[in-house]
Amino acid sequence: MLTDAHVDISPSDPDILAHGADIVSALRAIVPDGVVSDAAGLAAFDGDALTAYRQKPLVTVLPRDAEQVAAILSYASEHGVPVVPRGAGTSLSGGALPRADGILLALTRMNRIREIDLENRCVVAEPGVTNLAITRAVERHGFYYAPDPSSQIACTIGGNVAENSGGLHCLKYGLTTNNLLGVEFILMTGERLRLGGKAPGAGGLDLLGVVCGSEGLLGVTVEATVRILPKPPATRTLLAAFSSVPDAGQCVADIIAAGIVPAAMEFMDRRCIEAVEAHSAPGYPACEGVLIIDADGIAVEVDDAIARIGDIARRNGAEVREAKDEAERGKLWAGRKAAFPAMGRLAPDMLCMDGTIPRHQLPAVLARMAEMSKEYRLGFCNVFHAGDGNLHPLIIFDVMNPGELDRAEAFGADILKLCVEVGGVLTGEHGVGVEKRDLMPTMFTEADLAQQQRLKCAFDGGGLLNPGKVFPTLSACVEGGHMHVKDGRVPFPNLPRF
Amino acid sequence: MPTHIASSESEIVEAVMTAREWKSPLEIMGAGTKQTFGRAVVTMGSVLDVSGLRGILSYEPNELILTAAPGTPVVEIEMALAEKGQRLGFDPPDWGPLLGADAGLGTIGGAISTDANGPARVRCGAVRDQLLGFRGVNGFGEAFKAGGKVVKNVTGFDIPKLVCGSMGTLCVLTEVTLRVFPKPPLSTVLSVRDLAPEDGFALLRKVWSSPLDATGLAYSHGRVLIRLEGEKEPLAEKCSMLGALLGGRSADEVPEGEIAFRAIGSGEVFADTPYDVWRAFVPPASAAAVAAEIDAPLWLGDWAGGLLWLGTLPGSDGVRAAVNRAGGHATLLRASEEIRERLAVFEPQSAVRMALIKNVKAAFDPLGLFNPGRMWPEL
Prior knowledge:
The complex is a heterodimer of chains A (498) and B (379). Chain A has helices at 14-18, 20-30, 39-43, 66-79, 131-138, 157-163, 170-173, 207-211, 245-257, 270-280, 299-315, 326-337, 339-346, 362-376, 404-421, 440-443, 446-459, and strands at 35-36, 59-61, 83-86, 103-106, 113-117, 122-125, 143-144, 180-186, 192-196, 220-227, 229-230, 234-242, 264-269, 289-297, 319-322, 349-352, 380-385, 390-397, 478-479, 482-483. Chain A is an alpha+beta fold. Chain B has helices at residues 9-22, 74-83, 108-113, 121-124, 159-163, 197-208, 232-245, 257-266, 268-271, 287-294, 319-325, 337-343, 351-364, and strands spanning 3-5, 26-29, 46-49, 56-60, 65-68, 86-87, 131-138, 143-147, 171-179, 181-182, 186-192, 216-220, 223-230, 252-253, 276-281, 298-302, 307-312, 329-334. Chain B is globular and about 70 Å long.
């Protein structure tokens, strides 16, 4: 966690632990063929892609349908047991990190596409359907699902909804929230409701808007209806190689200022280029930084955009080349999408940051990060969604070297504080999770956080859904100035956090 | 009714603290052009006039981001953006004349609070997709912020989306930050005539499912209207690609095409009629069937069928039932106070949803100070 001192990320309630066997058998009664409670089985569920943190859940349950999800939540609610929802476990912020005293609700077996409705341009999918499977299901009809997180082969649509996932192409096509039409959603009480649907708009308060990106704190998505887009007839890809990083930053600013909205605009620095070359040899030139830029649309429009982007890049000192065919395009993008695993081969451990900054601050922020790297004596490399100012510095460290994890986390925290200082935010697409929980006060005041926490309470008064994520401090739900009191006692006296 | 005039965040905090003390509700008002939209507010308290919070606070064309005080007229923002070749993506319509007010006065805060999206929504998204962040004062009398001032942000709950369309029932806005878009230099509106609704909407969906990126897809009186945009050559290419989708029919250029789409967004054709005016949101493919079933004396379709504007005889029932059967929802945008009360302006909610909505309301405004009853009687 990005904080000055380690805190207990998973405190556990001895009362709940003492009743572990009862909880397991209650879940077995609900999902006879989908409960994992042995130590070896649980090891497969001991965390997500924020690998520095591991914690086995009390029990994992894998429901097959919404009725089972509702029954599980309603049981947990009645017995005061925390629940951590999980998709494919690809969260980079620890959003799906289990709790020792909690049920891990894994939704991967709910993986059917329920409906492909081309006339209304949408797909209705269960939460465990992978992001890529939605595109696969509609591509033969000339459509695709736009948000494309790099983990799209594995990550699930339910997880995407929870995290409001982005991807390489959200500069032009938006994040999950901009492509999500509706959900069926189950509250912690087990109550089911539909939000949104195939018709535009909310029809009242936009609860769908606040559910998307709520990191599993408000309820559990058991079905999602997403917008599909017609596949653009033409896509061209430019690779611009720069001899200085600030030049690349200026190039990005100039492209946006020219009124061009590229489908994607990605930056990688020297260290990252070298790592990716060693990993999959996509053919990036040796230089200080590259921008990979996609323009898509109808052919004439793309030609026009590519010509203008090429000119702007050259004016900023870049050597520009274009992917000559679909195979080369695929290679250039595969390289970018593999940046994280490629770096992973070079470094025993990594922290991936995710701040967003106003685009004009790019050069200054890049320079400051390089200084910090020296101060902390830790290497890092820069990959980012340049078009929308969403930075992904990867900090390289070795957890086996005493003190390095702490230094890496302090370095990461400083980067994010810098992002906030220059007018940006802590996380552009990975979520707060446990990772950035304790940094929330650098961006939000007490009043800002109190407002968010009250919203949490409106959905989950007992604070049982994904407790310990997003919010830094204890805040019990109050109603009309009184604590919620159930069965004559304050709920979860041992729970120091949400 | 007494009126508090507040022209700064601290004055709003003060007004809310006073309202808390006396448990006296506030009817929040900007320019007042949409005051007849929604249920009549329970008026035992006072009006909080926030039209003085006015002006563009920062505008960075290179960042595609604009921050304004909520009382800023939409036209003022549109003019500032147009100077830099940019625009608001959600295409805010001017509902002033339709609702009995003057044209050109509506504020950005009002457009956000009423979820007022125009024809370009079909391509560019709704105001909820573009409100990146805001500052406001909640019913605790606390000034707070939510969201951010960058285009990509998932830090904390997305309260900006919740505020869009909340009719001032959650908080008083004091500052709003919007994502803006480059405006393509040229636009053309083409029309295809003599199409029955079924055929007209089928054509609109065909264009909507094509890569032409049409920013207007409307149907009115047997005529389909399609707005295409772009640089010169791409636009010409789009027009010729459209020809291929028409199945042998011909398309004519509409000389005053921008005006035609502005009129559709503002519901202009309904302004001087006695009709109740509904906005019915339906799955686009069911637009023709829903329109046929309701058989309103005056109606038109927008957003490739996703939105039906329906002018119905005053007090006539049945719109919402037909829309609900098709999987949609309806808002009664204009009617007399008595009819609004009887037919409900906003979609009635299930018990589970209403319980949740009341919890959400209480999270912002536990004493029910802001616009009580404006959306639903129980809120």
